[in-house]
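Schema walk-through. Below, the input block comes first and the output block second. Nothing else is stored per chain. Lengths vary across the set, and this one has 136 residues.
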Amino acid sequence: MIRYNLKCTNDHQFDSWFADAASYDTLRGRNLVSCAVCGDTDVSKSLMAPQVRPARGALSQAASPAEQAIAEMRKHIETNADDVGTNFVAEARKIHDGETPERAIYGQANVQEAKELIKDGVPVVPLPFMAKDKAN
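--- output ---
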């Protein structure tokens, strides 16, 4: 099924459903499509915006307070810290050992690497969100 916004030569606007685009063309060609207001059979398609359905699983409600807090935290971290990506472990060690100036960083480490950093006294904390390149 397809819905078209239509108008007649008297500039009346109306819409109608058809089985498909070819059905509309066939019916209009035989003067079987008429204005819903005045009955004029000289009708044409008028400009219409496409109707796009939201993606499955699209949020229908505003984010919960917890989701909003995480989003604010993410924004703060991304604004005030350097993303060192997969170099996180090496950069964290360099900062801890004084080899590079102290600064806020974030990045990626696996569980074993994070445990080793903690064991060695390097202050790290897991973040409650995924890296942008790993999120959908």
